[in-house]
Specification:
The radius of gyration is 19 Å and the shape is flat. With 127 residues, the protein is mainly alpha-helical. The protein has 4 helices and no strands. It has 2 domains: 73 residues; 52 residues. α1 runs antiparallel to α2 and α3 crosses α4.
Length: 127
């Protein structure tokens, strides 16, 4: 088994995500707003743990083991930084106009399908 630094925290996040998903499928005990918020926060926490773990491994490799750094680490440059708020604004405006034109239910259905496809691709990448 691969040793990870934040195994307890990651396991907790996965267990809570699984429990929320099972509860959401079989009952309406957890309101959808709380479920979506918790799912988002737990996924961000998992990504943060994995990112921090990778950063610590790279720092150990460079500073303690005195090996060269890895060139496959993705870094944000200035171009990415200024594009992010513009793309986010266009996306939010697009969602607003989509709700005006198609209605809230159609946009919610589209977003659920989009998130489900993204989630399945994420699980596929982890396997």
């Amino acid at each position: 088994m691969v040793e990870t630094l934040f195994m307890k925290e990651q396991s907790f996040c996965y267990i809570v995500l699984f429990a929320l998903t099972v509860i959401g499928v079989f009952t309406d005990a957890v309101p959808i707003q709380i479920s979506i918020t918790l799912h988002s926060m737990l996924i961000i926490a998992l990504g943060s743990f994995k990112s921090l773990e990778e950063m610590l491994k790279q720092m150990k490799k460079i500073h303690i083991d005195k090996e060269g750094g890895s060139s496959n680490i993705e870094k944000m440059n200035f171009n990415d930084a200024w594009q992010f708020p513009i793309v986010a604004g266009i996306t939010l405006c697009g969602l607003y106009y989509a709700m005006e034109y198609f209605g809230k239910d159609a946009v919610n259905y589209f977003l659920m399908v989009y998130i489900a496809m993204g989630g399945s691709q994420g699980v596929k990448a982890m396997l």
